[in-house]
Amino acid sequence: MTRSKKTTQAAALSAAAPAMDEGRDETGRWRRRVANIFISVVAAMIAVQLYALYSTNGLPTASTIFAPPNASSNISMTDVAASLSTGFDEFYATYVQPLRDMALDGVAHAAEEGSRVGHQLRGRSARAKHPVVLIPGFTSSGLELWEGHGCLKRHFRQRLWGSAEMAKSFLADSECWRRHLMLHPRTGMDPENVRVRAAQGFGAADNFVGAYWVWSKIIENLADVGYDGSTMTMMSYDWRLGFEHLESRDGYLTKLKHAIEGHRSATGEKVVVVSHSMGGLLYYYFLQWVVADVKAGGGGGGRDWIETNVQAFVNIAGPMLGVPKAIPAVLSGELGDTAALLPQLGDLLERYFGRRWRRNLWMTWGSLFGMLPKGGDAIWGVGADVRDEEDSSGGDDAEANGAHASTTRPLVPAIVWHNGTDEICPAATPTTEAPTNEDPLGLSALDIHPSRAWSEERAIEYLLRNDRGGSSSIYSFDSKKGWKTRASSVDKRKHWHDPIATKLPSAPSLKIYCLYGVGIQTERSYYYKVSCDKVGGASGGDMDRACPRENEDETQCGNIPDTNDDDPPEAPFFIDTSAKDDSKDIRSGVRFSDGDATVPLLSLGYMCQKWAQPRNPHNPSGINVYTRERRHEALMSLSDPGRAGPMAGEHVDILGNVGVIEDVVRIATGFEVERVNEDIIVSDLKRIVQAVDEHYLGGSSGVSV
Fold this sequence. Notes:
Elements: H1 3-26, H2 34-54, H3 62-66, H4 77-110, H5 117-122, E1 132-135, E2 143-147, E3 159-161, H6 164-172, H7 174-181, E4 195-198, H8 216-224, E5 232-234, H9 243-250, H10 252-267, E6 271-276, H11 278-291, H12 305-309, E7 310-316, H13 326-332, H14 336-339, H15 343-353, H16 355-362, H17 366-370, H18 377-380, H19 398-405, E8 415-417, E9 453-454, H20 456-465, H21 479-484, E10 511-518, E11 520-530, H22 554-557, E12 573-575, E13 586-587, E14 590-595, H23 601-612, E15 624-631, H24 658-669, H25 685-694
Region (Disordered): 1-26, 386-405, 548-578
Pfam families: LCAT
Transmembrane segments: 34-54
């Protein structure tokens, strides 16, 4: 790399630094979840290529770029797709590769042995002891194409997710890409003649795209103390599937069981399982599955399997009680992050990655239903973790009164309908009936109460009644029913994903560590509006077709069926971005609470604190549980551009937090592990737990009475 090129890149990064700091100080949402980064990158690529396409007619205006081509234009969507595909290599070489090279240089510098926690602990005699199994989170594992239709056959065994090739295939034919990432709309399994599978090995989840690390820092630090492929395993999986479907299609739970048993047998040591994000929920499901009888759909390991094989469960940023942002994702194809984008960028996203497009994709992913909030109104409705006007006054009595305020105030809704019952499509008579052919969206089943609010339970009930992909057959969110269902019943497995409805298995020597970040505002609930002009569906145009009209032959498009009949019309409701109330932390139609930018504190920490309580019915064998919070502190570094630094508490970047890495290495090696066997609570968690439990609904204890 020439000196002038390095100087130019350094200047560009320096110029970008204030903007990145400002965005990070406010919310940092552009880098808070991998999926949103992907959306933003694709949007930027499309914008650049559209600029190149239109620049022959002079400098484009906003209206030129963001308005669809008019009928008199000679430019077709096929031309646009061809331009995007042809120009991708040039775009990547010009804009992406230089930053990637610089980032790799920086990572190499930051990875010098003396600066790594693992190397420092090795110098103090820490050595590999317990085998380690890593379980990645939602969207973290690369997905490869093993069988597909004509438009993607040339991508055999290439990644459709988790590589630069992913963006290239998306830009070339976004509808074809979506059809291959979509699961069957009624079974939640593979569509006909399509097989997409998780990549395997450490490379499946060490880095997402290029130098955007996920697990690589933890892997490298464990390698410093002697771990390698013989003592450490990455258990990647197809994160789109519902948990039960992971076993029935891929045998994933059986393979995880065998991997743990294999390490135990080979080394004579119990295994340390380290999970991140949804991987923590998946492993909790596994804990229920592995001890359950085969007749009940379990793994048949027996009551003592965990005690015999597992040393510790290290749960990093695990959403043990679900994620509220899963609700708008499957309800209307929205995230608070995308809904709040600038209008022009929002228009661009809607054209190429629109709400209907997203919703009909995401609704087939059983994993998103598995991440819906758990525990119902007894947990989420109390509102102990959200701010009201009366909470903002502070003063000496604020903390003392806070624990009792939630016992009397109204339940906090999951969704507030902002335009009121009388304004919601008079032709649709409120009813509790299921959707019909005349009402495919279930609009009549909205049944919006005069309070204009949906509780957590009501929102989830609606989603399960309108699900695509069979999620309602593999999940139940009735925690009380789950608690009362016998462990030997085949119906119990619908509740294995829910820590409120189930008990930790008997494993008195097991240790559980909950490691997560706090101090970042995180989506908690939403404000919606109904758009009556969209009732009855939208045509969607050519973007809803499997192939462009002018290319409808088998050689160009393969045998992808035109499945418009399986694609519900756009949802006639959307996040109302005009909703704003600073006294309640409401902005752009989203109410926020403390968390790690993806998972609220209530989900990160509540169950960990409950499990740790003496004689708690959810932890009958008295497993030791430790909660170790890290307050988010963003420290920008040119050696790791676009990331929050070594003190980050953000949902993904916490995998590079030096304190978290040190905890993982100590737990795995057993070196001075007593330093990890204590709580670090820097948030308001204890007050929140007390307030939830003192509410008349009873919190987690309410299911067991």
